[in-house]
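In response to the reviewer comment on reproducibility (Comment 2.3), we provide here a single inverse folding case reported in full, input and output, so that an independent group could reproduce the run without further information from us. The structure tokens appear first.
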């Protein structure tokens, strides 16, 4: 298994591309070891590495945020944990832990604004989401109310 890495504009964050699907639907963001271990065997494994402070899963990538140690020392441990996890065949997410699916069910906007909302979503999908993905994250439309766009990052 070959895992590629990409730097991000944030020097404390590194993007790992395992060459296979990580999370089929939505995204998952973990900021603490306890929540990560309950929701995801892979995130729990990554948080066991000293210095890891954040883990984010997208469709085909894993973003890891560190605090402290240089990537030179942390990167091999992270690569090893990701490789071991995928080689074991264990699931990325615990079966009872849904991803942070930002689907249409949670969206809110006035039906009179539907055409404007479609334009906003198109701009997010074609211009903003690719830029945010470069930093190893994701952005989704949540709603539109009184001229204000609500997003989830």
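Designed residues, in position order:
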């Amino acid at each position: 298994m070959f895992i590629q890495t990409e730097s991000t504009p944030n020097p404390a964050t590194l993007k790992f591309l395992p060459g296979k699907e990580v999370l089929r639907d939505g995204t998952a963001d973990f900021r603490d070891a306890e929540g990560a271990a309950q929701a995801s065997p892979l995130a729990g494994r990554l948080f066991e590495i000293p210095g890891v402070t954040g883990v984010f899963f997208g469709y085909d990538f894993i973003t890891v945020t560190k605090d402290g140690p240089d990537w030179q020392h942390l990167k091999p441990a992270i690569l090893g944990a990701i490789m071991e996890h995928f080689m074991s065949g264990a699931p990325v997410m615990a079966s009872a832990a849904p991803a942070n699916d930002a689907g249409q069910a949670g969206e809110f906007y006035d039906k009179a604004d539907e055409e404007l909302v479609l334009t906003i979503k198109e701009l997010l999908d074609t211009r903003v989401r690719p830029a945010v993905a470069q930093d190893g994250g994701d952005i989704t439309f949540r709603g539109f109310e009184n001229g204000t766009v609500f997003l989830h990052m």
